[in-house]
Amino acid sequence: MEIIIADDYEEMSAVSASMIAREIQRKHDLVLGLATGDTPVGTYKHLVKLHQTEGIDFSKVTSFNLDEYVGLAPVHKNSYNYFMRENLFKQVNISPSKVFVPQGNTSDPEEYCAWYEQQIKLAGGIDLQVLGIGGDGHIAFNEPGSSFASRTRVKALFEQTIIDNSRFFERAEDVPRFAITMGIGTILESRKVLLIASGEKKADVVAQFIEGPVTSQITASALQLHSYVNVVLDKGAASKLKRKEYYNWVRDNKHLVQKQIGR
Ligand code: F6R
Hints:
There is one protein chain. The chain is an alpha/beta fold. It has ten helices and ten strands. The protein has one domain: Rossmann fold, CATH 3.40.50.1360. The strands form two sheets. A seven-stranded parallel β-sheet has the order 1-10-9-6-2-3-5. A three-stranded antiparallel β-sheet has the order 4-8-7. It starts with a strand and ends with a helix. Fructose -6-phosphate binds next to loops.
């Protein structure tokens, strides 16, 4: 796991966007896993800018979003489908036929989830998965106790997630209680992972998932089992890490580290 500590939200967003852009430049038909929420808004803004100014080309990119609320149609203003259209898809040249966001109002969620997994396989698997982290340590909507072998399925949301996400809804009662979410097993099969987190309110879970034990109670800790994970944090989110100096040293001396491992 490589930990990058940026000064603030703005720098965290710029660094993560350039990491994504670099992957698209390396592989034009990249299969990109995407997250929603407050955290990636800045990253997507920077990606749009890179598309406009540096010509980062999304025309061959395929994207798969992590999750969607059960019951919300793609046109619903609180749906993740809507969020993605507004924050990224309509501002870059991604092909609508290559965009996959789970459909919250599907009539047969079980069959739909199996189909979604199948689409990821048919696309060749996810090359780079972008993740945020929830206040309860979740990745996607894999709430505490989720199996590390889990696949795309319907998951009941944890109380804290409902409270955290009620800020997007008029009333707390309007927050859906269930979501379709990629599983931890699905996420762990991605070739590379990029997790971003911002703000002191995430500091505890960030420290737990990076420096604590691997546990299904903090599902992001499953990433300790993945061989290629970049974590980009701002100072607030990194504030409870014990080994900050070490992570900063590794980042600043990457050329020496790469020389040692013969890259
Ligand atoms: C959203 C998702 C969630 C969020 C997490 C953090 O697609 O998968 O795991 O990444 O809840 O949300 P924010 O960024 O709003 O704090």
